[in-house]
Amino acid sequence: xxxxxxxxxxxxxxxxxxxxxxxxxxxxxxxxxxxxxxxxxxxxxxxxxxxxxxxxxxxxxxxxxxxxxxxxxxxxxxxxxxxxxxxxxxxxxxxxxxxxxxxxxxxxxxxxxxxxxxxxxxxxxxxxxxxxxxxxxxxxxxxxxxxxxxxxxxxxxxxxxxxxxxxxxxxxxxxxxxxxxxxxxxxxxxxxxxxxxxxxxxxxxxxxxxxxxxxxxxxxxxxxxxxxxxxxxxxxxxxxxxxxxxxxxxxxxxxxxxxxxxxxxxxxxxxxxxxxxxxxxxxxxxxxxxxxxxxxxxxxxxxxxxxxxxxxxxxxxxxxxxxxxxxxxxxxxxxxxxxxxxxxxxxxxxxxxxxxxxxxxxxxxxxxxxxxxxxxxxxxxxxxxxxxxxxxxxxxxxxxxxxxxxxxxxxxxxxxxxxxxxxxxxxxxxxxxxxxxxxxxxxxxxxxxxxxxxxxxxxx
Length: 460
Description:
Organism: Arthrobacter hankyongi
Domain Tyr recombinase: 162-439
Pfam families: Phage_int_SAM_1
Helix content: 40-55%
Largest sheet: 3 strands, antiparallel
Number of domains: 3
Structural class: mainly alpha
Low-confidence stretches: 392-398, 445-460
CATH architecture of the largest domain: Orthogonal Bundle
Order of helices and strands: EHEEHHHHEEHHHEEHHEEEHEHHHHHHH
Keywords: DNA integration, DNA recombination, DNA-binding
Domain Core-binding (CB): 44-127
Number of helices: 18
CATH class of the largest domain: Mainly Alpha
């Protein structure tokens, strides 16, 4: 479990509290802004600043983004023996390198700029509120709107300066195997339910390219019908738990979905072993499962819930007709829906196991995060379009050029601008030359072609 966590407030059942404590609970207002905790204790500076951010901006969206940036920075500082208030200039310089240069931990330039903005604004607030010294240098930078103060450290990193790490086809089974081995065995030679869940989570990310927030909040009812034919099947990602707040219709890799179906199988699937007696405080119980292909469900009171508009909070309250959580991924601890913070860290934790296994055999495995599963999905889909194997409706089955392939993959990622997708899939040309449709679709398990890393970074 991560030492630095983001906690979100919510309502409680006053009657249940009174029954347990024997006294009525105080009428304490629900905390709406994110709360940062370190080793289970509230981090007061970050939490106070996030409350101010929540109050003066658009609420949850900006405060949540800043909380995630501070969580990452606080975790880094904790590993280096200090705290947010104890950060010094050397820590800032090292963190810039960690996030923008190190191959194992670098992120997209746009992600780094969000982190940099949050760090700058937090320490400016800390200076004004408590008189602490800034751990970075402020420069006065001219802009069309007049001079502004800008944090020198980490400035000038281009938005596309730190591309992601799309996995090559032979690396995918290595990552999935690491997921199943990363937790203790359930029985001799049998992966634990948590390991099977982690493998299914990663497989779903590879299948559809959804972000961690979306993956963590999908229900068991939103997977494509397993009886659908084809190696690329139609799938919908709901808008209410997606970054763009728009429903996305995409082509998902059936090969990866099969692992999710196995995890979900009512008799042999590992998910049934994660079910415990957990219940939400205010459940929404489905009257019956939705009709196959339907994107809505009715509760026992007759209220209709459309999956596209169901919020994360509503999804966590949704129960099946049998009274079990309807969310796809569950906590191994108590059977509750897997938290977003745990889901966000899951792939990186598994990646470390894959990296250790590779080092033990004298090989290399890249460090990947959940967002890199999105890069992989886009790269492999665009490569299929590039070699003419992804769309039977293409005239004569002819391939498209690299630009057209990127544009088609952009639809699957929900990007309005194909240039955004181009940042994700710089390796599509190289990958399409090195692998065939069978590799991307999982029909073969070939070893990577002997090619230098420099060549692997070649643009399409």
